[in-house]
Amino acid sequence: MLTCEICGEELLLEEDMKTHLLLSHEENAMSCPLCSLSGVSYDELRLHVSSAHAEENYRDQSRSSSRCSAGKNSTVVSFSEVSWRTGHSGVSGVNTESGGSSCGDTESISPSSQRQKISSETTYHSPDRQKHLSVSTRGDQLKCPICAVVCSNSFILQDHVELHLMEQTSPEGTTLGAGSPAVTSSGATSSERRFECPLCSILCSNSFSLQEHVELHLDHGAGSQDSDLELARRLQGEEEQRRRREEAHKEREEFKKLQFGVDGSGGYSRQVERTMERAVARGLMGPAEFHSKRAELLESLASGVDDGRTRTQGVIKALYEYYQTDSRDCAHVWLSAETDHFCSSAGDKGWGCGYRNLQMMLSALHRLDTYTAVLQERTVPSIPRLQTMMEVAWREGMDAQGASHFNQRLQGTRAWIGATEIYSLLTSLRINARIIDFHRPTGPADTHPRLFEWVKQYFSQTSSSRLPPRLVQTSLPPLYLQHQGHSRSIVGLEQKKNGSLFLLLLDPSFSTTETRKLLNRDTTGSALRHVRKSIGGMKHRQYQVVALQGVLSAEEKQISILKSRTLCAEKIP
């Protein structure tokens, strides 16, 4: 028979007791059946009954039959016969050794009397204390924070913990813990409890030493993990650096092949043929048209003269007429001698800007009497012809170091050329050329104001008056401007009324359609936006300028050839 600890009702089955507790006590308002206390929670009511009405409650329970789970020499002290599966305290017992007891001698003891008994037992070193620390458990209970024992309610747990505390201050000096006492090599129990390390089985004298010892294990393990992690990261970093170096090396090799023309992909004529072959494959060009254009290409290459299909004439004249009537915000404008614009074609797209700028410069020299005396050809050479002329200059001894970079060969390649190649060819033609190197920015935000000032001095050198006219078209050839990856031609300079300077640039990447907009008076102003460049729009790290200053005699040419072996540009600043 089971007795409810709250109201004293007796039930036969444990399931009936659970139902009774749920319907009569948990779901309804809680009130004490022995006094007028009400409006409390189930746990508060249980605590109230156990403390305020302990004698009445357990006197009723003592009349009920109890179960025995102890051995022959053990007595089970039961505080509740119901195993609470709903989260509340369950059946627990404290085993106390009472010699000769049997199941029929089971005795029900109240919590207060139990606490008094435990307190009296802890005043001397009794073998019963070890039994007090062994609490049988059923289900989820209150766990002792010192050992692995669980208790049925807070009173038993408090008494149990007090035993631990009292044993620590016991005059005998022994210490009780969760484990068994350490055994010496002779088999005798040590007078002082030892704590065994769970990682290496070493024995420590107290819990503090054990904690420090275990922390050493953990620190060592963390250090090993950190070392392994650091090693993995270092190996991964080295592998990433190696991969990047290989990719960078591959890119440099491919760039060199393209720049120096040793990729074996052919030069100008082969690129034109491949472009036409793709047009035929896409149906954009018929076979008959392909063969006709190929024959024209071979004829043009044989003549060595540019076919003029990418050439736009009259650009400087159109700019001069525009500045005469428009752009009144300009205080001064300087223009170069008449220069034709040459844009890239299918044969040199992606690599021919240097050759196209050289064609622009030669188109201006053909109109200037100073230079016509040394120019044997009065026409603008084609790109393959210019490549041949540069090889001739190398054979004469010009820029031996630069020639070695190209393996002494430019014909049939797509090699890029720069300021030194332009200088070598012009010197070979007995034209006095200079290379001015603006090797670092000279203004804020990586700008080059010194470059703009130098260009202004170049174009204004022919003016003898202190106050130059607003618009001047000089007899000076354009300037070749080189920077990383591209080149353009400077054909003039604007100076605004506020003093700001703007370069006027002809770019080989401009198509003939875009350039011819400069020739139309209605579109000159809008097309000029692509030609005009401010200081803030020129932010490459380095610029090189090739400027022409008359012609050379035969002796001066030889001196220039000798100097080209250690070719040095004029650095500004």
Largest sheet: 9 strands, mixed
In helices, the fraction of residues equals 40-55%
Supply the helix-strand structural class. alpha+beta
Count of discrete alpha- or pi-helical segments spanning 4 or more residues:
19
> Averaged pLDDT, please?
77
- State the end-to-end distance: 110 Å
Strand share of the residues?
15-25%
Oligomeric state of the chains? Answer: single chain
Cα shape: elongated
Number of strands: 22
Give unreliable regions as ranges.
60-140, 169-191
Q: Could you tell me the radius of gyration in angstroms?
A: 52 Å
Structural account:
It is a single chain. With 573 residues, the chain is α+β, with helices and mostly antiparallel strands. The protein has 19 helices and 22 strands. The strands form seven sheets. Strands 13, 15, 16, 17, 18, 19, 20, 21 and 22 form a nine-stranded mixed sheet that branches. Strands 5-6-7 form a three-stranded antiparallel sheet. Helix 13 packs across helix 15. The longest helix is centred in the middle third of the chain and has 54 residues. The radius of gyration is 52 Å and the shape is elongated. About 18% of the residues have low confidence.
